[in-house]
Amino acid sequence: MVTERDRRTPEAPAWTRSYADGVPAEVDVPRETVPDLLTAAAQRFPDRPALEFVGATTSYAELRDAVARAATVLRDLGVRPGDRVALVLPNCPQHVVAFNAVLRLGAIVVEHNPLYTPEELGSQFRDHGAAVAIVWNVVAPVVQGLDAPELREVLAVDLSRALPLVKRLALRLPVPKARATRAAMTKPAPGTTSWDAVVAGATPLEEAHPGPAHEDVALLQYTGGTTGSPKAAVLTHRNLIANVTQSLAWVPQLRAGEEVFYGVLPLFHAYGVLLCLAAAVRLGAVLVLFPRFDVDQVLAAAKKRPPTFFPGVPPMYQRLAAAAEERGVDLSGARVAISGAMPLPLETAQLWERVTGGLVVEGYGMTEASPIVIGNPVGPTRRTGTVGLPFPSTRMRVVDPEDPTVDRAPGERGELLVQGPQVFSGYWNRPEETAAVLLPGGWLRTGDVVEVDDDGFVRIVDRIKELIITGGFNVYPSEVEDVLKAVDGITDAAVVGLPGKNGEDVVAAVVLERELDLDAVRESIRGSLAAYKVPRRIVAVDDLPRSQIGKVLRREVRDQLLAD
């Protein structure tokens, strides 16, 4: 439900003139909730596959029925509107069912990475106070052992229950490969309740049972935010519906009832929630789920049900396109790919577009904005090297990082502020931290330093909190990293500031594809960087720590270098 308005009116921001054809300057946000998306899709496309998982399909009618039965299970456990329910799950059909069932009751989903340590999970559970958790049975013992006084019920999910019957039977074979696959997918979880069993035996929740309101909280999504300490961003149904509406308006090429989305992004991440758990349903798309990103699995699935829309991160596109080209796998159906989380290298974009014949465009977001606020036009006006233009109904300002009430002059670097219906309402139980990033008028401080060109295209320079100050000069880590990654023999780099005599020393961690003289590397890059930006020390490492979606974690790099 998108209303296009004349982009040439005085009220429309100048950057809307660079939008792709058919993209409106503003969108009207429907007064829907996330459960309404599934209800509508099941009515329009009851027999169309909603999910595909390792060959097993679930129609929209079947998905709606499973959600109704799961909602009954949760209601009978005492889950009420406003209660938090924790999900600790990889990508699987049970994750989709649980997510929608919690929201159907007006309760709040709290997403967790199943690979988190007990310490990380424990601090989050104590923060949100969920009484019920739906968890992968492999990590159920970790959740059961948490110091989380409010937690009283753990429901365990067996991923193998979502497989086609023939594949479930194959897991029982007494051969090493079957045993290894079974161990990676499922494990007995004593002392828990089987989520799969209780949902299968439940009766559907009556349709008259009240659901959430448009302004109710839907999701608590943990993030480091702009300050680094994990906290839960509070996202309402309105926030998510707004961002779904904006995202689909941005890609008018997508057709209801005809698309195939690939779910390689983790569903516990805001990027995956928005595009795979919400936007795909709004379109009545088939969501092909992968428990983890695996090139062989993705290419095997593409032979049977090719993707038409592929949200991901740059390393995924590079590896998939290279493998598809080498093996002769046809990816020509992938008309649109949206890349986020990190810069999209030009060579990666060119490779993907050569192999698929489609477009890949870069975007930008943050959890506090549901998460997408900026994207490159899906068309000829896109601009390589930038993250694009503000989404419809989104405004931006560039301000002095030291005083966000002062706007920078056009073309000057500064901190990016954004405003729009997708911007969150604050952090869970953190009023002071909310006030630090959510300014009067609903302006969100992103913590990112940007440059904006004359047409409104935004280029991310760096994170304010990762800015290095050495001898009174500012050093943006990404600038130094780009120079290092251009050195033959260096495959990756992360630059951080460590305590030094003049404030901070610039130090680089690099991944090598062959042995290099690192002192010689330092000398070789002097012609590309001012003297104060040249790393005082370059350290070779085996690999760089990354988030679940592939972003280099500079804080962890810094901690590792300090520990050496």
Beta-strand fraction estimate:
15-25%
Helix % is 25-40%
Please state how the strands of the largest beta sheet are arranged side by side.
Answer: 7-6-5-3-4-8-9
Coarse morphology: globular
CATH architecture descriptor name of the domain at 467-563: 2-Layer Sandwich
The main pleated sheet reads as: 7 strands, mixed
Structural class: alpha/beta
CATH homologous group name of the domain at 467-563: ANL, C-terminal domain
What is the number of beta strands? 27
The tally of helices reads: 17
What fold name goes in the CATH topology slot of the domain at 467-563?
A: GMP Synthetase, Chain A, domain 3
Kindly provide the radius of gyration, computed on alpha-carbon positions and rounded to a whole number of angstroms.
Answer: 24 Å
Unreliable parts = 1-8
* CATH class bucket of the domain at 467-563: Alpha Beta
Spatial gap, N to C terminus: 55 Å
Mean of all residue-level pLDDT scores: 92
Structure, described:
Residues 479-551 form the AMP-binding enzyme C-terminal domain. GO terms for molecular function: long-chain fatty acid-CoA ligase activity. Its EC number is 6.2.1.3. It is an enzyme of class 6 (ligase). It holds the Pfam family AMP-binding. With 564 residues, the chain is of the alpha/beta class. The chain has a domain at 467-563: GMP Synthetase, Chain A, domain 3 (2-Layer Sandwich), CATH 3.30.300. It is built from 17 helices and 27 strands. It has a seven-stranded mixed β-sheet, sandwiched between helices. Strands 17, 18, 19, 20, 21 and 22 form a six-stranded antiparallel β-sheet that branches. Strand 3 (84-88), helix 3 (93-104) and strand 4 form a beta-alpha-beta unit. Helix 9 (237-250) crosses helix 10 and helix 12 packs across helix 13.
